[in-house]
Each structure stands twice: as structure tokens, then as C-alpha cells.
Predict the 3D structure of the following.
Amino acid sequence: MARITESQRARVSLDALVNSSNRYAQFSEEVSSGRKVNSAGDSRFSGTINQYRDLLTKIEGHETRIQSAKAILAFQDNTVSQVNELLIRAKEVGAQAANETLDEDVRSQLAKEVWEIRDHLVQLANEKYQGRYIYGGADDDDAPFDQATYTVPASGPESLRYAYDNTTTEPGNAQSRTINLTDDFTMTVTTPGSTIFGAALTALEQLGRAMSGYSTVVQAGPVYTGTAYTFPTDYELQTRAIKDSMDALDTARVQNVMPERISLGAKLKRIDTAEALLSLTKDDAKSVLGSLQDANVDESATNLANAQTALNATYAVTAKFLQNTFLNYL
Amino acid sequence: MPNYGSKIITAGISGLQSQQARIANAGNNIVNVNTPGYSRRIVNLESRASTVAAGGINIGDGVTVSSVLRIADSFLDGAVRTSTSDKFSAQTENEFLNRVEQLFSINGERDSIGSTLTKFFTSFNDLSANPASIELRTNVVEAATDLVNAIKTTFSGIANLQKEADARLGAEVAGINSITAKIADLNEKIRMREGTTGAGSAIDERDQRELLLGQLSEKMSFDRVDVDDGTVTLQLANGFAIVNGGNSRQLEVTSSPSFAGATSPPSLWGGVLSYVVYDYDTGSGRSHLDLSAVLKQGQGSLGALLDLRGVASPSNTNAFQADGRLPEIATRVEALTRTLLTNFNTAYLGPDRDSGTAGHQPSTGDLNGTVPATFGFFDFSYSGAKDTTGTAGLPETSDLDALLTSGAVKNFSSLLTTAFTDPRRVAAARDASSGPPAAAVYSPGDGTNARNMAAFQNTPVATITLASLSVTNITLNDFYDQTVGYVGNLSASAKLSESVASQSLSAAQNRRDSVSAVSLDEEYASLTVYQQAYQASARIIKIADSIFQEIVGLL
């Protein structure tokens, strides 16, 4: 039979105390931190835990950019919507002016609304978003549509024209901005203003000048000249020019503005879908991270209570165990 | 008719003396119950050789103390020493690796390389959405600075631990030398005493020697050979004797041993690694015998310190070639740094950064339209030539290797910087022209380069390599996660080893104590028995006295 010595009794007691204290400390930390893994050595999945932490940090970045993208697209959607309405109104004015019962003076008066619409459109085209010209392409530090003049007339709104980067030749004005919304979802969030506003502004200028009694050769691109009609000789010519301008307005609206509006709507929809998927990914990542790292608080609390009981029992047993010797009975 | 009267007295007296000896021994055992290294002793009695009385009747001449025996089992003692070495080795490993794992935080409570790396790439992604934003540009610079600081902090933390391990070698070796000198001294005493009083009689000295052997096993592994003259020889695994009879060989920690050049293998902290050596006389001068590798193979705190710190060949030219846990971990941090300096910078500057041919030019520009500096985004503090191959442009991995091997740069992690701090200098755009560098043009709203740099996070690096490390096709984040897993497994393994070694040691000590240690219960019970025997012996004398009085009364 094995001998039991005092040193063994002391060692057994000490080991029991150390083990009980360690378990008590372990469960205390679990309950207080809410985690069962607090450092890399606490789990063989520490690399995976770090991976999911990285993923959650990345997702936070994705969420921020998605919100930014939504805001910038919503801003453009609102702008393009206004452009569409302005072009519809300009066509209504043009249709009114094309009536051959109106003389050139009335048409000239109606042209004033067209110039208002044109100025409004220019204002929209040179709109800033967060301090940068949103329709300037990559060249977003100056207004995309510059003012120029016709030689005839020499003054008045009829003499003004607006062209995309007419006076500055900085590169990048035709470049859209593309951003990574997530690791595998990239989206173009801006469109150069020339695509949306170029044809519309030209058509508006053609319409306004025609209604004001000046010719414009729009087919040849930016033209800085044009002559005044001679009335009543050129009245029919003016009417035809007004009608041609209305066709150009329609073309600009249907081929440039409406597709942009549809595209913006579709992009916002795609972002919503991506956002929902990202949310699911985030929930999954949190769930996996929680299962790997988080303590089951109920279980840990129960374990802590048990560990506390065990520790108290160990104290009591140790006190008795070490106290009792044969000497007490001699 | 023989006279038994004197025999009665003699027997009684021998009984008194013998029981006194046993009582004294039990007392000695009791008072030494908590004395470290004490082995319980028993007093052996034997019947005293008697003279055959007239008439051939042999009653005996009482009892005598034949020997005092030290109760010890050399196999159990050896098992305790082995377990002690294992425990102290695991304990030291665990202590250091526990501190290492704190540098690789995974609970998100403070910045680590991993978290700052992710934030850095996220900041580039954010910038691509609004390339001209000074706030977002500042975020990129700040995130890069955080990443650089995290790398520096982590690397210097590992380097400082290596330095601490190196410094502790001196204290451990001093302790070993002190112990082995005392063991040699005790060897001599035991040999002298037992040469005159018989084998096993120098029990106090043997106890002291066992205690010292136990203390020595805390520090190192050794083989014990018992010699017939009572001495022990202590040898390392390669047969080198550190104690032989009355002689001990004093070890030494030196950073300039005779077998190494003027510059020993560099360390992580920028100094040199020291060696554990034995200084001996060759007959034509002094020389050093390198014992570092054999001690590293062993256990005990010294073995663990060498295993952690790393042991390097004198021909090693950089700190990452040392064979040890801390250099292995530091190698991974350094490899990540080098990837930022080479692969990331290359991607940042564009693929054709160093050609002056039309259509091949630095393809990025900052907000001022300035072509970035040669180093692009990350740089390191070094005043000498960074591009050692002589090719204009960004230094390659081979350039970094050359600087490391030459000793011009000890490591790149502690020298890592960002190439600039002005947020306007972040090159978010790519060259919009197709002309030569002089014709390069940049758009302030172009975020192409920023977006490409953000995508670098998910682009596998072909090879991450340094010293014995070689990992292929892995992203920086995955590489870091792998490193965290590596550190975590090392730490978990060290914790488990310490726990197992502690239990093994307890079990070994219990087995030894079951044989050698004092049991008070046993001693108390024995005392009672011895006391009774003593009283009985006294009673014999009293009876003899009574008999004598009876006889005297007859006169």
C-alpha cells in the first residue's frame, strides 16, 4: 500500500486549490468579457477568428461606401428628373411657338422661357456634390459647362452658348467614376455631363435662337455663328427650325436623359440588393464569430457558480485535510 | 549454572539505547518533514551477537543499531528531475509566448497589424469614391501611419522578448555554474566520507546533492551517471561532462566567442546573439566550445530560452536565419513589411514605373499632378542606396535581401515609414495620357489608382518569402491571419505543455515522496511503538534491579 506523506497531502491540496482557482478565474473572465477566446492561444481557430474580424471591418467600410453611393445616385436621380421635366416644358413652349398663327414678336417673347429653361439646365449641369462638380467626369474641380458666345447677336441670352469643357482642356472629363462597393461589386456612380446635358443644351439653344429669330447650324457641332432671319421672308424657315429643334429636344430626352434616369434607378435597385446581401453576410460573420469567440453566458455563469462552489469546498477540505494528523488522537 | 543477571541488565540497556536511537531518528524525520530534499531515514536494528553461555544456552546480548538507512529510489528521483526539466521548459515557453500573443490581439480591443491592414485598404476604397476629398486622403495617410506603427510595435515587441531571453541566459548560466560547483564539492565530500565510513553513509551530503540536482534540472537537461565512489557525473546530450567527480566545468555566455567572426549573427533588436560556451585551453591558447545547440535541444529554462531566442550559426548573415520561435514569428512580420515595400509599392506606382519610353511611365500622380517618389507609398529610413542593383526605380526583393545580408539594414520592420505625410500626395489617379513621363496628366477626380490599391487587399501575392519562410499565392490579410493562427497554436501548445508537465511533475513527486518523504502519521505511530519498547526496556532493568534486591535481601 502506498504511503501518504505530508508533502503529498500538501501538494495534492495545493494542486486542487490551483486548479479550482484557475477554473474560477477562467469562468470569471468569460462572464465579465462575454468571450471564451480572449487571446490567440485560447483557441486553435484564432486565425479564423481574426479573419472574421477583418471581414466585419471590411463590411463596415462597404456599408459606408454603399450609403455614399446611394446618396450620390439619389442626388443625380433628382437632378436628371428635373432635367426631364425641363425638357418636356421646353418642348411644350416650342410646340406653342411653332404655331404658324404667331408672328415673330410673339415667338421672341416665348423664347424668354426657353432661355430660363436653358439657364436652369446649365445650373443643374454645373451642380456640385460635396464641393465637386458631379458632372465633370474625373475633371471635377471646375465647372463642366463653360460659357461661350455667338457672334450674332452680340448680346442677350441668344448670344450665349454652353459647351462641355469649352474653355479648359483638362483630361478626365469623359471619365466616369467607378467605386468598389464590396470586394466583388463595382459600380460606376457618375456620368460625364456631356452625355446627359450636351445634346439637350444644344437643342435648347437651337430652339431659343430659332424662336428669337436667329439661325443655328447644329448639325456641324459647336457653331459660334448664326445669322438673324429676315421677316417675313424667313418665317417658314424659322418655323422649320423650331420644329427641328423640338425633334432634337426629343432625341436628347429619349436618347440621353431617359436612359440615364433608368440607369440610376436600376443602380439604386442593385445597391439595395447588394446591401441586403451584405447584411446577410454580416449577420453570418457575426454568428460564426460569436460561435467561435463568444461565451455562452448562461453556461459560463453556471460554470462560474460551480467553480465557486468547488473552490469553497477545496478551501474547506484543504483546511480539514491538512489539519488532521494522527497526533490529534494521541 | 550461568549468571543471567548481567545479561538482563545488558539487554535492558541495549534496548534503551536502540529505542532512543529510533526515537531520535523519528524526531529527526519529524522536524525535517518540510525540509527540501530531505529523504526519510530509518534506523535498522539487529540482535547483538551473543556469547554462548555455559551449558550451551544462548539467550542473546540484546539489540544494537546496525545502520541508518536513507530511503530513496534513484529511478524515482530521476523521473522527478526529468519532469522538472520539462515543466520549467514549458513554463518559460508559455511565459514568453503568452506575451507574444498579446501582440497579435484578436479581441478587437486594440489595434493590431490585422485590423490596421484592413482599415488601410478600406481607406483607399473610400478615397476612390471621392478622390479629391482631403478628409478621405487624410484618412489614407492616417490609416497607413497606424499600419506602420502596428508593424513597428509588433516587431519591436518580439525583438525585445528576444533581447530579454538573451539577457536571461546569463543569469541562468550563472545559476548553473553555482550549482554544478556545489555538486562537485559535495561529490568530493561524499567520496571522502564514504571511503572511510562505508557506502551510503554520507546521507546528509547525498540529500544536499539531490536537492541541487533538482535545482539544476529546473535549468537544463543532463544525464546522470553514478560512480562507485559515490560521486555522480553529469553530462550533456553530446557527452560533454559539466560535473565529473570533484570538478565542474563552468559555462560562459559570450557574444564574441573564438569560433565566430567580429560580428556574430545579428539579432532582431539590432545587437548580436550570444553563445553559451565552454572556455578551454587548447595548449596553444584559449578556445571556446559552442554548447548552444545541444543546450537548445534539451529542456529546462535554459533550453526554452535558447529555443525561444533562437540559435544561429556564426555564418548567418541576418537575424531571420536564427533557428528559434521568436525569429520565426518575427520573420512573418518582416515578410509582410517587405511585401508592402515591394509588391504594394509596385502596384501603387504602376507596372512601368522605371522606363522612360513613351507609353511606359509612372502611371500615377498626386493631387498636385506630381509623379510620386521612387518608393511610392511605403519607404524605410535608410540613408544609403536603397536600390543596390543599379536599376533605376523601385528596389526589388533582391535589393532588400542584399541590404539585409550586408548588415547595412538589420530589418525593415523597425525602419518602415510612409513615403509622405501630406494627404495631397496620395496618388489616387492614374495617368490619363499615353505619352512619356513628361506628358503624364492626372485628373483630380480620378480614383482609379485608389481603387486598384484597395483591390490589392484581395489580390494574392505570388510569393512571400524570407529566410526559411516561403508562402505562395496568398493575400496580405490571409497571410496575417495565418500568422495569428501560427502564434495562437504555439501559445496554446505551450499552455498545454505546461499543464501536462505540471501534472507529470506532481505525479512524479508524489511517487517519489511516497517512498522518500516523511509521513507524520507513520512517525507518530512509530514513536508510540518505540516509546513502548523503550519503557519495556526500562522495565527489564527495573526487574533486574528487583531480582538483585531480592538477592541482597537474602544476605
User: Anything to note?
Assistant: Chain B has a mean pLDDT of 88. Chain B touches chain A through 74 residues (CB under 8 Å).
